[in-house]
Amino acid sequence: MDMSQYLDMFLEESYENLQNLNEDILGLEKNPEDKDLINAIFRAAHTLKGMAGSMGFSDIAELTHKMENVLDKFRNDELKVTSEVITILFRCLDTLEKMISNIQNGSNEIVDINEIMLQLQSIVDSKNSDKHVEKKNLDDFKLNEYDINIVKQAYEKGYKVYKVDVELIKDCVLKSARAFLVYKTLESIGEIVKSSPSIEDIEQEKFDLTFSIVVISDKQKETIEGMVLAISEIKKVNVDLIENVKNEIKENEDKKDQTAVEKAAAENIKNSKEDEKNTKKTHQSVRVDIERLDKFMNLVGELVIHRTRLEQISNNHRLNDLHETLEQVGRITTDLQDLVMKVRMLPIERVFNRFPRMVRDLAQELNKDIEFIIEGEETELDRTVIDEIGEPLVHLIRNAVDHGIEPVEERIKKGKNPKGVVKLTAYQEGNKAVIRIDDDGNGFNLDKIKKKAQSLGIDTEGMSNNDIKNLIFLQGFSTSDKVTDISGRGVGMDVVKTKIASLGGTIDVVSEFGKGSSFIIRLPLTLSIIQALLVKVGSETLAISLGFIDRVINVNINEIKLTNNKEVIMYRGSIIPVVRLADRLNLVESDNSEKYVVIVKVGEKTVGLIVDSLFGQQEIVIKSMGKTLQSLKEYVGATILGDGLVTLIVDVAALV
Amino acid sequence: MDRSDLDAGCCIYLGREKFALETRLVQGIEKMMSITKVPNAPYYIKGLANLRGNIISIIDLKALLNMEFTKEEENIIIVDINEENVGLMVDNVHEVVEISDDMVEKVNDTTSYIKGVINFKEYIVTLLEGEMLLNR
């Protein structure tokens, strides 16, 4: 059978499951007792195993199976959640990720899973002999006193008690109906003691694909299995004999009084969590190929262009009735445009959610105690930005952990909380999205930066403190004395800055020595439709993104002065370097002595761009220029104006 | 003759020469459009044009093939080169001819974008290798 058509789906879902696993295991480290979390992890691992198995990737299935064994120990309280085990689980996830990415890249490289398999096995084995660990097979159910009594009586009468775990196939349409059939079948052969989720929830379809039922019956295990499997749309059924219930009953009876209260509390928490989950599920969504969205965007863009054209015609011919209709069309296209833009937006959570894991690993490696806080992960950004912003953020967070936060002893000496705080925040500010990375670490040492600057031949005389701090974004500028695995090679910050600039954003640093530092990244919410200023240089029309423009002034050619062989203008008492757009683009400037200077701000830099004339402001749709022209750094793309002509959009960040 | 090596070629005029492009690459033939110049672009790129809402690069085929400029081109032939539509400026499009592999005479020319020459008795046609045109 040809599996290739399912491959994409497999890859996507696997990555999603891996991400969930990463998050949940991280959560588990913090709350080792959280049974819901363990179950969630188990489910994700199980799904991964099932999918890999059905796609024929036996290595992945095998590894996840081993992982499941370990998780099962957690579930049955046979194994304590420790940092070491978590680390091994994480390594396991990394291995899985590598294997899956190999599949994606079509590479035949074989990832060695033996070592990690052995490690997992050793966890399973070592804890097996551990007799101290209590056995509780009925965790999921929290059998109450009454239930236990029934179970006890059943055993006394020679009946057997089974726990039946049923999994429905994925696209089962009438889940509750199937579940009900299972329920009925089991009821016909014995007495049902308990079900999880409760029968009411099952009836209302408040469950995933799995549910469990405890049944008292005199039938054999295989018989029950066969009966349940006879119902269609059942993927898997697992019947377990509950044997140790007798011992447990005694244990439970001893603890009864104190545990009753605990159980009630636990159940309460569980219920509230389940409610949460339910509300989340109502958020329905559809997976859409990004290419289709791009096409959709293009079509909307085209519609906007033609609307403008029609408006021109209606104005030229003074067609009133056409004008009225066009106004309606205009409103609809604006709504459509908003909508398609929102459709392309994704919560930044997608990028953020891999950082807790990274910070944890780094902190452990560096022996630092770090609390990592994420806020505003629901802030939405254009997909293109989401795809690109991860890498610079990795650099910044690594820096914060490695250079920012001091070692524990040093923090204690300084009278700081031994636990360092790294905070990642995202929020919307006007039409910009802001991402902040704050740490309460050491901050920047100005003197150190100055020294480094001097050694690189940069004169820091007369520079403001802020300017000096911004030197760190220069290439080859690292004040770290030693190069570590994590950071300090001096390649980081300039890459960060370039990347952010290429997304049309800016980065600033605020820092107080000894108290910490903050990096503030400002990004445009969307990259596809922007407000732009249309200018004329020579005979060509060009568009400049309004996001960069500070103000536009007009100057006489005589006002452009030379200093240090560079052209500058004086504006409100400050000297602004200017760039002749015509020179940069090898165009012929018009002879007119009255010019316009478009003052742009790229990060901290302010530069004036000299153009011949202005055409005004317009909303434009950025389109890519195609592979042949991609190497031209001068443009971010091109757009089609109302008259159908193609106009280039200059990349301000690359020109100044 | 094996059917698989049968292919059709789209004959185009360029100056005084005739060229052919495999029809599987040809997406359409357009009249000359208004082209926006792209400053700093390679010499053989005439600029960008709006093809029904999509922006495509227009290649000055004569410049690309080191031919002399003779007269204003009349047509743009849209070809799919490496999954991207680009426009090639040609004087005009002549006809579609059938080509089989054995008709193509390999030439000693080292330029990779010429697949070979076809002799049709009355005239000869240079067969271009579309995929290689922009590989430089």
From TrEMBL, chain A:
It is an enzyme of class 2 (transferase). It comes from the Bacteria. Residues 270-279 have a biased composition (Basic and acidic residues). The modification Phosphohistidine is found at residue 46. Residues 265-284 are annotated as: Disordered. GO terms for molecular function: ATP binding; phosphorelay sensor kinase activity. InterPro entries: Bact_Chemotaxis_CheA, CheA-like_dim, CheA-like_homodim_sf, CheA-like_P2_sf, CheA_P2-bd, CheW-like_dom_sf, CheW-lke_dom, CheY-binding_CheA. Its EC number is 2.7.13.3. Residues 1-103 form the HPt domain. Residues 529-656 form the CheW-like domain. Coiled coil: none annotated. GO terms for cellular component: cytoplasm. This is Chemotaxis protein CheA. One of its GO terms (biological process) is chemotaxis. Residues 281-527 form the Histidine kinase domain. It comes from Fervidicella metallireducens AeB. It catalyses: ATP + protein L-histidine = ADP + protein N-phospho-L-histidine. Keywords: ATP-binding, Chemotaxis, Kinase, Nucleotide-binding, Phosphoprotein, Transferase, Two-component regulatory system. SMART domains: CheW (SM00260), H-kinase_dim (SM01231), HATPase_c (SM00387), HPT (SM00073).
